[in-house]
Recover the amino acids of this structure.
């Protein structure tokens, strides 16, 4: 009996050793397969998810960069528009996708760094579930007013907003959009009281300004500068840190006395956080090359946009700073998604 028990124990030990060897072999094969997949990335079409409907800024940049990125990578890049809920539907989809580099988000500031502070509950965490790849484009907003408003400078507008609080309205493309948050920042920095009127997009907000329904707007440069050139509205300043190439004659708000005032509309690429570093690096490297192409730079300039291409670490730091900045603003002003 004792011999039998020893023999059974030896068999168990052999079986256990064989199981361990088998599992180790499986792990090694899986690791080799993963390395092989990364080395051959991409070997199928890439899905580029856009958090807006066709025709918007995010869609424009996706359709400009996407085909050139496809050419550089040797695989198709399929544009998939998933609009709604301030871009959070698209961000949630990508955050929950497999981390293999075949599902990429062209995220904008609203869905990535603003929405997490506006919504009571989101199904994803920007800081944990998405890995930044690179900034694609940055667009300044322009502080513009209806011609009926008796101001010709930023200081004039501040004085009017202080002396006659809540008599002026500013239009935006919706709660939490840069066109809205710029107005909230302006109020906080100056003490001027201007009421917010949200619209469903920059187009309707611009039309409302032209019609005199609202008197002020922090509008995207590409949407409002043609109207400024035609004399239908007046431009006072840009919201970026530096003057914009699309309107170099306009001062920045910082130059106009509002120290450190900066807010832009930006767009960047993100992948699920489980995506291997090698895949992230390749996507960054090829996207940066595309953004440096002369014809891409020319198209960006016509839209008043500055091309990105920064490294993943630099873009991640930028996103963290934006997340913290807008978190404080949303909390202090009590901004919600409704």
């Amino acid at each position: 009996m004792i011999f039998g028990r020893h023999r059974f124990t030896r068999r168990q030990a052999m079986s256990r050793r064989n199981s361990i060897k088998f599992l180790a072999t499986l792990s090694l094969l899986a690791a080799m397969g993963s390395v092989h997949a990364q080395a051959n990335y991409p070997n199928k079409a890439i899905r580029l998810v856009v958090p807006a409907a066709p025709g918007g800024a995010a869609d424009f940049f996706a359709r400009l960069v996407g085909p050139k990125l496809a050419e550089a990578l040797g695989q198709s890049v399929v544009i998939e528009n998933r609009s709604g809920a301030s871009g959070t539907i698209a961000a949630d989809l990508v955050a929950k996708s497999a981390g293999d580099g075949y599902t990429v988000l062209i995220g904008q500031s609203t869905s990535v760094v603003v929405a997490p502070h506006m919504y009571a509950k989101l199904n994803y965490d920007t800081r944990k579930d998405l890995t930044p790849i690179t900034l694609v484009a940055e667009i300044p907003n322009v502080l513009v007013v209806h011609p009926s408003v008796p101001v010709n400078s930023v200081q004039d507008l501040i004085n009017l907003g202080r002396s006659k609080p809540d008599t002026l309205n500013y239009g935006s493309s919706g709660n939490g959009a840069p066109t809205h948050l710029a107005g909230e920042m302006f109020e906080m920095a100056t003490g001027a009281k201007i009421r917010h009127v949200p619209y469903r997009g920059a187009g309707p907000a611009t039309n409302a300004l032209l019609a005199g329904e609202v008197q002020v707007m922090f509008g995207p440069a590409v949407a409002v500068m043609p109207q400024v050139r035609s004399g239908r509205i007046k431009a006072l300043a840009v919201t970026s840190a530096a003057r914009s190439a699309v309107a170099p004659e306009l001062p920045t708000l910082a130059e106009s006395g509002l120290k450190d005032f900066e807010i832009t509309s930006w767009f960047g690429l993100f992948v699920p956080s489980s995506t291997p570093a090698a895949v992230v690096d390749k996507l960054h490297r090829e996207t940066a090359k595309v953004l440096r192409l002369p014809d891409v730079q020319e198209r960006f300039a016509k839209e008043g946009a500055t091309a990105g291409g920064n490294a993943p670490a630099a873009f991640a730091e930028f996103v963290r700073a934006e997340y913290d900045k807008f978190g404080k603003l949303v909390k202090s002003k009590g901004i919600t998604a409704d």
Remarks:
- Strands lie at 46-50, 77-81, 103-108, 130-145, 168-172, 194-198, 216-220, 234-238, 264-272, 306-307.
- Residues 140-238 form a domain with the D-Maltodextrin-Binding Protein; domain 2 fold (CATH 3.40.190.10).
